[in-house]
Amino acid sequence: MKAQLKQHLSLTKKEWNGMLVLVLLIAAVLAAPYVYQWQHKDSIINAKDVDAALAQLNKANPGMAKASAGSNVSAKHRSLFKFNPNNLPAADWAKLGLSDKQIAIIKNYEAKGGKFYKPADVKKIYGITEADYKALAPYIDIPKESINNIIVELNTADSAKLTQLSGIGPTFAKRIIYYRERLGGFVNKEQLKEVFGIDDLKYDELKTQIKVDASHIRKIEINAITFDKLRLMPYLNYKQVSAIIEYRNQHGNYASIADLSNIAIIDEGILRKIEPYLSYK
């Protein structure tokens, strides 16, 4: 057994020489980076020499120094003048020192129905820095004919009319119209806060610009309406709509809101909301 093991583990002279060469090669590979680093020491850059070279370069080609200034060039070379930011041509924005990216953001804002009603609105544009606004603010000249003179009636306004409101673009206009159609019209201005995305702050900005004529609301014929159509009413959930239809089937037509109050899952708050929309023909 020992003889067999010795035979398997023993190496010939040729094999020993091969192993020695392999070890030497591995050592050489591992040592190579250190040898290279020792033979090629980094030279120290003299900052004074660099400054002197740049000064000579700037003297020979002043335009190159301007080009190297990057994004600050436009700010240093503003051509300031009185301007109305609404629908201002891109070329004029460029003269005022704005970059192509900033101009593209403004034009995209306008394309979505955005409008500037006061100088501070320019500051709200994404990409306009504090420095940009401070430079431009004294020159912003928005005509006195402002949003304060615009009053929009919510039940009859189309999408174009709604986008005249401060902060209302095409997306919000579509949401308002969609909600108005489901509701049957607005009874009061505060219902605008029920539209997705219009919070208290946005409503406070809009409330002086809107009015509501409740005579334009579309009534629900509660004794004839189907489940699918009544389901569109935002104030009623699936179970409440089912209960209204079922109660009508069991007890006959509704005569007044008092009949609806007999339905246990419809509370007084819901009744107050839906009452202006009901017709008992």
TrEMBL record:
Pfam families in the record: HHH_3
Gene3D superfamilies in UniProt: AF1531-like domain
InterPro entries: Endo/Exo/Phosphatase_dom_1, RuvA_2-like
Name of the protein in its database record: Competence protein ComEA
